[in-house]
């Protein structure tokens, strides 16, 4: 039996229920059992249970073997692989159960602590947790969307808003985007989202009060895509010019703006775009600033017209929108379209891949972190359905529906939220253009009767004959499915339901529009494998003459395909396992087609409004067949569903969508660059008069107070009807008044000082825009002496170059920097700026002393107005102190983490760490803060010996963008010096339009800070970029050679 041991494991794990197994011969080898059916086993166990492409290929190779012994040996090996898969699936399921349990405990603990902080003034209205009340802000569509039922109503609405001149920025990065002839279905990145954002931009551009809409995307100049995707600008012409009420201006309307970033001459999938996001942000920032100036000249009386909102679509664009929002200090809006955590859970449930494998394939953890950042930064998150909020967004650390409701109740009562914030979730169904749709009231037979000499009919669209050629009886009702060949679209279950239901096959035909293809072998492996499985099912059930699956169709053909299905009195079906919204359902309804749709996701809300079909369980094959048969056979039901859809479809029109959309985004608390009223705020770079800079300096007044108050803002500042929290009556630092917390200024006594630095060289600030290059020293040295040595070397490299400026960027305080420079014999006046406290403060050198506690520096207070957004203040500090105490209690030793009052400022809470190996990784602390609704950026510094907690949109990289926005310093002129590794914000310093020099051998000990990252640095850093070079060493000659490669210096 030794040679047959594998059979026992195999039988126990898998085959104990196989009906083809002969129990009397169970001790024999598999290859000796004549009654065992490998084909049946493969279909029932492998295809339905695992759907593994590699196993399928192994099966094909095994079945092709002529030698019975060799074939059975291969099948035996496959059995072992399947058994291992079964074990792996069980293990992954067990790990996921444990992970969910841990997450539930963390969520409950965080909610409890947050509630405890606010317990002194809780009301009874805040204590209930009824599910139905959780999403009071995400109301359903019916009854909440006022109808636009006549031209008069629309004109009245237009008169109320025509005085506004709004500038809106939309961002959608991946896929191929153009205004006409969209190649939807070309690949998995060019799908419904592409159509949605283009139509949204087009519709917004025609709305009263909207002057300009920019849709920012990636410029693609690759040989395998059309030349139109390389055009920098494309105007989106309105579909219905008759209702275009907008007054045209020189730059008005809607435009696609293509920003070059990423590999040149190469079209890449969205999972590979992450390293190049900073490059897009810098390019987009330049465009928005330039356009704001242009619009200012046209409609802003000379003052820049900033975007009323920056709206990101999908995680990659959300990450970009958050950075742009922080750099410009304007509101951000986000739409997820699909969410990473939901996709991760679905993939884990399948049991085919581990979390690590999924992350390698989809870069899913980077995507999830981007979505968490959007929760931190967004004023409003727009969803298509309530299901997206209830079942998807609640999976995230940064959104808790229960805590959100408590905060909302406190805001309405004017009670402090103790620094906690939740974004406002708004349900706005996507819109659609209906003016060109004329539902067909005829049928296949009636049309022939109408044809004649007096009433000649228009020729049938070419796509009709392309579909009809598949059918032996083309007059039967058509069941239409329109989806790319993707497993999650669940087309195989539809084909099985159709193939196994004889009455349905006799009554109807099935049409599958599955994207475009030239050769199946040239498709992606997943799509090709799934398409082959569909074709094989068609063959299995002998559905030839009853199923159409054309290879090609144009986007302009889609309305004709709907018309054909309606003409045959057919049905549209969307059987996807989960459908985030279901735009095709609305399109089908607009053409008079009843629908059958999945009960998971957006179709539930669509059906609630339209009441034009049936919902099914996508996993229940019989349910699908029954619903289709019912609609096809019951003509009265078909007519009723058709009429309901046509009657209510206007609720999903683009005017309805845009009207609700504009009402929401214009209700956000306005934010824009603080100095917008300053005459030189964004003056062109040619204007370098000394007076420009002097005026700005004279606006800076410093108020130093020993009893400095810390911000306890607790509002959800995106609430449309709520102003600043009544408990937060402080004048913020953005009003050019600095209030430093106790201990923030060494040696300060009980006195206040108010001084204006009128002795600062007026050219010092304007010099930032005149510098040929600016060297940013952001090296995180292993020791302070190492950092000083690196600073000296970099300064020495360009000693003879007067056109080169210097900026120090570090986690140290301004006092530590001053001491460091003094110890090394360097003067603050040798530098143009200092980015301190991990990017939470920006200082400029001063020729006099006494401005900052006797130090020769001037603090940029406008920068504080930029990073003030959602800063938790004292509520955040108390939570951090409590966390530090829990760490100390848990370890049972001396104080491991202690608050560093001397290193803290109003916008940076610092903690000293005696033993970095005993504290959790930085992502765990950030997660804890998010669970409690506290929005911040957690940075582990100095090899883990220090923790800086700063505002969520503050960082060293964002501070560089601020200098560009504020002073016009060209980002492409920046050269950032970093080590091989660095502090936990290291990844933000690489990438973008600036150039980077990686100093070999510097900062390598900081790698331990990144050992427990959720995604590797290699996934998000553009090491292959021409703007990133690695120096062979940290010495003058090696650095000069690196700068020569970058074209900065000539040796």
TrEMBL record:
<dbReference type="InterPro" id="IPR001296">
    <property type="entry name" value="Glyco_trans_1"/>
</dbReference>
<feature type="compositionally biased region" description="Acidic residues">
    <location>
        <begin position="442"/>
        <end position="452"/>
    </location>
</feature>
<dbReference type="InterPro" id="IPR012819">
    <property type="entry name" value="SPS_pln"/>
</dbReference>
<feature type="compositionally biased region" description="Basic and acidic residues">
    <location>
        <begin position="96"/>
        <end position="115"/>
    </location>
</feature>
<comment type="pathway">
    <text>Glycan biosynthesis; sucrose biosynthesis; sucrose from D-fructose 6-phosphate and UDP-alpha-D-glucose: step 1/2.</text>
</comment>
<feature type="compositionally biased region" description="Basic and acidic residues">
    <location>
        <begin position="676"/>
        <end position="686"/>
    </location>
</feature>
<feature type="region of interest" description="Disordered">
    <location>
        <begin position="673"/>
        <end position="728"/>
    </location>
</feature>
<dbReference type="InterPro" id="IPR044161">
    <property type="entry name" value="SPS"/>
</dbReference>
<dbReference type="InterPro" id="IPR035659">
    <property type="entry name" value="SPS_C"/>
</dbReference>
<comment type="subunit">
    <text>Homodimer or homotetramer.</text>
</comment>
<feature type="region of interest" description="Disordered">
    <location>
        <begin position="439"/>
        <end position="459"/>
    </location>
</feature>
<keyword id="KW-0808">Transferase</keyword>
<dbReference type="Pfam" id="PF00534">
    <property type="entry name" value="Glycos_transf_1"/>
</dbReference>
<comment type="similarity">
    <text>Belongs to the glycosyltransferase 1 family.</text>
</comment>
<protein>
    <recommendedName>
        <fullName>Sucrose-phosphate synthase</fullName>
        <ecNumber>2.4.1.14</ecNumber>
    </recommendedName>
</protein>
<feature type="domain" description="Sucrose phosphatase-like">
    <location>
        <begin position="787"/>
        <end position="998"/>
    </location>
</feature>
<dbReference type="InterPro" id="IPR006380">
    <property type="entry name" value="SPP-like_dom"/>
</dbReference>
<dbReference type="InterPro" id="IPR000368">
    <property type="entry name" value="Sucrose_synth_GT-B1"/>
</dbReference>
<feature type="domain" description="Glycosyl transferase family 1">
    <location>
        <begin position="472"/>
        <end position="646"/>
    </location>
</feature>
<feature type="domain" description="Sucrose synthase first GT-B">
    <location>
        <begin position="167"/>
        <end position="432"/>
    </location>
</feature>
<keyword id="KW-0328">Glycosyltransferase</keyword>
<comment type="function">
    <text>Plays a role in photosynthetic sucrose synthesis by catalyzing the rate-limiting step of sucrose biosynthesis from UDP-glucose and fructose- 6-phosphate. Involved in the regulation of carbon partitioning in the leaves of plants. May regulate the synthesis of sucrose and therefore play a major role as a limiting factor in the export of photoassimilates out of the leaf. Plays a role for sucrose availability that is essential for plant growth and fiber elongation.</text>
</comment>
<feature type="region of interest" description="Disordered">
    <location>
        <begin position="96"/>
        <end position="141"/>
    </location>
</feature>
<dbReference type="Pfam" id="PF05116">
    <property type="entry name" value="S6PP"/>
</dbReference>
<dbReference type="Pfam" id="PF00862">
    <property type="entry name" value="GT-B_Sucrose_synth"/>
</dbReference>
<feature type="compositionally biased region" description="Basic and acidic residues">
    <location>
        <begin position="124"/>
        <end position="141"/>
    </location>
</feature>
